Amino acid sequence: MLTTARLLFLAVVGGMLVVTSAHAQLTNLECGDQLYGASDVGELFTLDLNDASAVMVGMLPGTGAAEIEYDILGDTLYLGVGGGERLFEVNPANGAALGVSDHLTGHLDGLEYIGSTLYGTFYNGATTQLVVVDSESGTFFSIGNTRIREPVSGLAFDPHRGILYGITGETGLLLTFDFDNGVATVIADTGLAEVGSIEFGPDGRLYGGLTASAPQHATALVVIDRTTGDFTSIGATGFSIAGLTACRAYGGIAEGVVEVPVLSPAGIAALAVLLLIAGFWVLARRP
Questions:
Q1: CA 235 to CA 219: how far, in whole Å?
Q2: Each residue of 228-266: pLDDT tens digit?
Q3: CA–CA separation, 243 vs 156, rounded Å?
Q4: How far apart (Å, rounded) are the C-alpha atoms in residues 282 and 278?
């Protein structure tokens, strides 16, 4: 005979059997497998990773992008402008400014979120610093000198390997960084020039975007081998790419976001029915 305790146990187990695994919502954007790009004249656009075709979204504030970065955890798009010392929060639907902060120390060439921390690269006229940026105030503090004597135009984090990559905009050197002191190590020479930014796509490939000033593959979206630096051009985008960002994380899960079990609608209904049956059984057993 089933006891009350056994019925309650079966109710809980029955509900758990129809639990589905889900992720905390990462983004409100319907971006699919696209990347967002920004041009050095202030255009915001999306890029198809299959053929590099671009779709104009809107015009960005400021005087042209130095870099853009999407905060997947906070569902916010940030823009560092190339001709000023400002960090904008922008609407990814049309590029309009939602807020702005002045950091007063020169523009940021590269931006990349790792969890809730926004990293950046700042060229002081002699060397590039690896910095951490306060997105609310725009201020940043230096982790250390990268020892790279030119601007680092883009950053991209591989959450599966825990590696932060960068690229020099003028010479196309692929770099990795030491989080403790900011020192950069040259991994490979891509052979590219005028690289505006790099970013990991949701497919795990490392993408690079070239400006209109590039001597080869101008405005192209390329795939870069993170070990050898070899690249393959997907095609010309028609935009002078200064910034790249993804709004869906590499592998689909943002660094720092954990899977949480949630009941599906069917699971909730089944659990309710089982608990109701158990309740009636308890009442029926009372003298």
A1: 8
A2: 999 999 999 999 999 999 987 776 544 433 333 444 455
A3: 11
A4: 6
CA distances from 116 to 112, 134, 249 (A): 10, 10, 13
Torsion of Cα atoms, 182 then 130 then 217 then 91, to 10°: 140
The whole model's pTM is what? 0.78
For strands 76-81 and 173-177, give the pairing. Answer: unpaired
Using CA atoms, how far apart are residues 170 and 107, in angstroms rounded to an integer? 17
Q: What count of residues does the chain have?
A: 287
Q: How far apart are CA 100 and CA 79, in angstroms?
A: 9
Report d(CA 263, CA 94) in Å as an integer.
35
Q: What is the dihedral of CA 270, 276, 281, 282, to 10 degrees?
A: 130
Q: Which two tokens stand for residue 142?
A: 């230096």
Work out the angle at residue 62's Cα, subtended by the Cα atoms of residues 59 and 66, and round it to the nearest 5 degrees. Answer: 90
Interval 131-180: pLDDT, tens: 999 988 888 899 999 999 999 999 999 999 999 999 999 999 999 999 99
Neighbours of 242 (CB within 10 A): 32
Tell me the pairing of strands 241-245 and 35-39: antiparallel
263 by Cβ neighbours in 10 Å (0-12 / 13-18 / 19+) ranks as middle
